[in-house]
């Protein structure tokens, strides 16, 4: 989870959008055509946001030499020392320009990453970094400057989240942003570049760069050998053309088995996320508190606390009446269930309960069911 923890695959640690359809295009020969095609697909945003597809100094797309076109489109191993050196230089160019739009995201004590994708400040990240709609986030840019942002919607089923930098913080200038690719034509063996601010922004270090290849491509997840660690969640994954193809989600069974959200999922759900909607949960990561209650009762009275549950570990007791769960006032047991469903496993939530004649505050770390 955010805050230096990553959700593991088997254990929890912690109108369409501005997306292009030019996967596989000859980036070196058709830059202007690509940008025009990308701009034509930007629907459902303001006129200012529609301009995101313009060719500009803040984009991340980098021309790919003819000698690297095969590695761009199909992956594989360099066939000569010269090609290996050219690949290394290409990766360095992408990393250098992509660092400008890779940001650190902090919400309360929790920390993760994100990547700016529009000149008006939309940021894609992981759902477990954004947590829930309407929260204030503090975004640290590549130069160390900090700005405020607001979380929007999220598709928790694939761990996709959306944030927007609050307007009026850049003197009318566009934000540096990533050039968007597509996850539609990705295949195992393709080279990729992962960026992030694990452990939070560090001016002495800058963004951390890792180079690797795609190991597995599925509709809902991409696996790579780009080693992710705590705090990388929400950061960007680029191809060697400088196009954003995925967002870091979580660590699998090994540090070299890393899972990412395919970028096209942000396109599919753009309207809902931009409107602040949230839904679903990752398979085997449904949040749970571990209490039962009477749904017909007029208050959220706890009948039973499951042994070994997050509720028991946090100090909740039978007959406690839950009055507030985090920022939400709780009227009955159904309201409590809804509030728990709107959290992420690993999240620490303050809960206020009425215990006899006393109001008691406890902190519970939400567990997972599955």
| Percent strand | 25-35%
Any low-confidence stretches, pLDDT <50, length ≥5? 1-17, 19-57
Q: Biggest sheet, strands in spatial order?
A: 1-2-3-6-5-4
Q: What would you report as the Rg, rounded to the nearest angstrom?
A: 22 Å
The largest β sheet comes out as: 6 strands, antiparallel, barrel
CATH topology of the largest domain: Thrombin, subunit H
Q: Give the strand tally.
A: 22
Quickly count the helices: 9
Helix content: 10-25%
Distance between the termini: 17 Å
Structural class: alpha+beta
CATH-derived architecture of the largest domain:
Beta Barrel
Task: Report the CATH C-level class of the largest domain.
Answer: Mainly Beta
GO molecular function, one term: serine-type endopeptidase activity
Domain PDZ: 287-365
Pfam families: PDZ_2 (PF13180), Trypsin_2 (PF13365)
Protein name: PDZ domain-containing protein
